[in-house]
Amino acid sequence: MDIFQSIEEHPGIVRTVELHTSGEPIRIIISGFPKLQGNTLLENRRYASENHEVDRVRKWLMLEPRRHQGMYGAILVKETELTRSGEADIEVLFCHNEGYSTMCGHATIALGRFLVDTQDVEIFPRRALLQLHKNNVDGEIITVLRLHTPCGVVTVTVPTTPQNKSDGSKPVRFRYVPCFVASPLEQGITIEVPMQMAWPKLIQRGNQQQIQVRVDISYGGAFYALVSSEELGFTSLQSSDAELFKELADAARILRILLLNQDPQIRKSLVHPEEPDIGFLYGITILDSSITPNLHLKKNLITWICFFADEQIDRSPTGSCVSAHIPLALDQNQLEMGQWCSYQSFLSTQFPGNEFRGRAIERNTKGYVIELEGFAHYTGTASFVPPQEKIDTMGSGFVLKLPSNM
């Protein structure tokens, strides 16, 4: 046991709680992360991103050898402007292989469980202020938590046992900040793909000098570009073929490059009306046309694959993209207010009970208020020591990627 004790006594130790939501991991950092500076949560996020000593901790926690390219993290922040004003119970910053995001649905579901389960005031100073309630609809016991994220306050409802612990057999539910369609509704955005950048399946779709691809941009706590697989030349995502996923990853990477380097209309679609720090393209989501042709929701089921950050693939159905898609479906008359829709990732389709469900419950001048639910499960806890960089040259973090086909 001496090695465990020596690690626990290390002055630079970082402690985490580990969960997954529909297969997507979440590493909740509960202690040891460097102190952040700033009066607001967005200032904290900016500081973490720009300060080398802070960001190096993110890198060695997210990347190999301590994890991998697909890791996701949540950094608990005990106090910022909205906890001081009484509008939130706790704050969080989200992080991944590339940096810091503005919202994350799968992490919010996991955080809901953990923040109800912990009684440690060093981790969650306002835990004792949370109260048990009875759901007016079915009498279910719940705990309501106000989580301050970089995109705003998210209200999280956690089914709770009489012992004041989260009930993992029932889904965590939360309500987003206002979500909206950012690109022109009727025509979306047309991307011109030069032949020298086109992937094989897109070339098979047409032989012009330039091939046009239509995407929609929508906001669900982060900005996403949504496009059907058929539009990109893929008939279906229903395959375990590794080559298909390499081709999809190449297509998403090229789309991202073209989206960020084309006309001002695209840049205009990525402007948040209130917070400049949020105005960037976070992910590319490809919808399975074989299940939902032309985004039509006959079966109230959407299946997709989401690429975000530095070509990271979301194992889960991507909660913030669910909240980005629902306004688009509503505005295109494919979904009704209050109507639930189920969402699956390319992976969760293989494991029953791992879909997300979402619906719009309100519309106001800022957009739609989306409600989403899903399940999270504990996988363990961990203690990490920082790398001795002069000795361990790989310990600071690295990414292993498959070579691109393009």
Helix content: 10-25%
Structural class: alpha+beta
What is the CATH fold-level name of the largest domain?
Diaminopimelate Epimerase, Chain A, domain 1
Beta-strand proportion: 25-35%
Quick one: overall form?
Answer: globular
Q: How far is it from the N-terminal to the C-terminal residue, by CA?
A: 50 Å
CATH architecture descriptor of the largest domain? Roll
Based on CA atoms alone, the radius of gyration comes out at: 21 Å
Counted by DSSP, the helix tally is: 9
Task: Tell me the CATH superfamily of the largest domain.
Answer: Diaminopimelate Epimerase, Chain A, domain 1
Q: What's the rounded overall pLDDT mean?
A: 91
Low-confidence stretches: 293-298
How many individual domains? 2
Number of strands: 20
Could you describe the largest sheet, including whether it forms a barrel? 20 strands, mixed
